[in-house]
């Protein structure tokens, strides 16, 4: 099926045609009612009769489409090119949103990006044309917003090479963030393999009111479940409170589900979704969804007795939910906004707000912007001005054009705000910030989703707090964290006390959406004469060389490259920011490997002892030295290793530099899969205390590899410098297919073999 600027109704009808038979058969086979997530997954099973067991079985699924942002698409498409196929097997798109650096304003920054990234954009556009992908130009919008506006549909399934792909759950779609290798699987016609997820139900009652917003729901959920609480699970929202939330509000909630490690998040189909589909020109899809609406929600018995059907149920009363603000340094450190001032003083966090940022893929809907703008209009009418730098990031060209037409951008600009490009910018470290420097403690407030150290501006001393657009604007007007918009007042130029009015918004534009400039380029009907050229001298792009297959031998006395202390997110393993420009060049980007990891032996970040010469060096230099010396190595970490983004490079870089295994107390889902895809053993300590026993000069042997079995334990030997040693057990989650990846050297090597390549 040819890729177009929106999902064709034929694809939707094909998906819905499977629902009746498959869902009825599954109810009979399982002997119970089904949740929404189960219905959609079952409808997309490659083998409808396959055994399914939550948290146990690995199952093959056939997604309806694939989406990739420009930073991750480079490596995914470099891998696809090596597969040797003439075109992608499912509708797939590339979205240019990550490489646009925020510096001046939207227009200036976009022009600079088009110039500075011309080689990468040309590569992505030419590969898209050659292999039948749709291409969304720089400035068209952030991938997740563009997908919500054009491609997501209730009951569908997609994968995307970005952890916030679940944004599409706002339209009832199972949308899963993955690494590039998973995308290659699907684009080459192979199924998407995943462990059947557990299910967390979030029961919403009541209705949001006052200053509370959809953002506060996911901030509260993150507080309850923590950054690892959703690992291996789909979060399904239901209840009367769910139907009171707009489709874009639902998207906001699902988007940030990535911050709890969830496989994905979704809502059942309702009138709000139908309204949004119709408002975005998809009346036919709304009609089709209405015809199968009974399949696009949990069964009645599930709704009546959720505890019997979900593995965990979370209860939230929206009527009593207060505005929240989470951070700093982790998205699950939560409290009501009125409690932050005292907590900040107690912990020495700067009270002054240096920058306030509104928008992004999760909070740039028309509804979000209207509510935020209403606060600014009320403030202006009462003689109040913002007291800090204020920036707004439209999520898409359609959002930007519409809010400009309706005077909302003018409201922000009148308040002194800078309107940035329709791109990711400060959310992902693409922010050329000049007002503060490393080591200067400062506070920023934003309506984004992730706030690890260095995440927004590359400065570890920045304290980032995540909240709703409404609260962000309120704190910009106050200029301080010690402000509660529900109860406090601000002093205007006349010395009068002003209490901010409750924000008022519009779910959808009364005059309809303005599409703005067309940012979509369809692939040509015939691309046989197109040639993909990558210069061998390029510092941005590098053709891939397949990794060597396993040699059949155990790993004996592997040196320890590092032992990590505390968090090891994908940002710690392979930071973004300035390194984004090397996402298509594996060798160059490996210069950031483990730069953010804190050494458990020294407490210092990014440096350790080279096991070959005993010298203290940066982790990238140690890894390069070991890799170029042909020495395989192991890294050891703590809980939730690989938390955060879907960043495939966090797995590819260690593999490229010679990692044989990563041994930790626990893994984040996407990263664990990414490691397995690249042929790296992902092992967890059977006894978490073993982590404490590992010394700086120890080596680790990994034995019995020829006898790897699905779910079986792996025996390791910890060798000490004094000649003593001790055995310890590790666990792994490998399926037969994953073991085959390991033996072949990578999942891509397996694909090449099965397609008849070398």
Describe what this molecule looks like in 3D.
The mean pLDDT is 96. The protein folds into 3 domains: 9-317, Aconitase, domain 3; 337-498, Aconitase, domain 3; 555-754, Aconitase, domain 4. It has a 7-stranded mixed beta barrel. A 6-stranded mixed β-sheet has the order 6-5-2-3-4-21, with helices on both faces. The chain has a 5-stranded parallel β-sheet with strand order 16-15-14-17-18, covered by helices on one side. The two termini are 29 Å apart. It contains 27 helices and 30 strands. The chain is α/β, with parallel strands linked by helices and 758 residues long.
CATH architectural designation of the largest domain: 2-Layer Sandwich
Under the CATH scheme, which class of the largest domain?
A: Alpha Beta
Q: Please indicate the count of domains.
A: 3
Structural class determined from secondary elements: alpha/beta
As a whole number of angstroms, the C-alpha radius of gyration is 25 Å
* Number of E strands: 30
Q: What spatial order of strands do you see in the largest sheet?
A: 22-25-26-27-30-29-28
Helical residues, percent = 25-40%
Task: Tell me the name of the CATH homologous superfamily of the largest domain.
Answer: Aconitase, domain 3
Mass-distribution shape: globular
Termini separation (Å)?
29 Å
Q: Please report which band the strand proportion falls in: under 5%, 5-15%, 15-25%, 25-35%, 35-45% or over 45%.
A: 15-25%
Summed up, the helix count is: 27
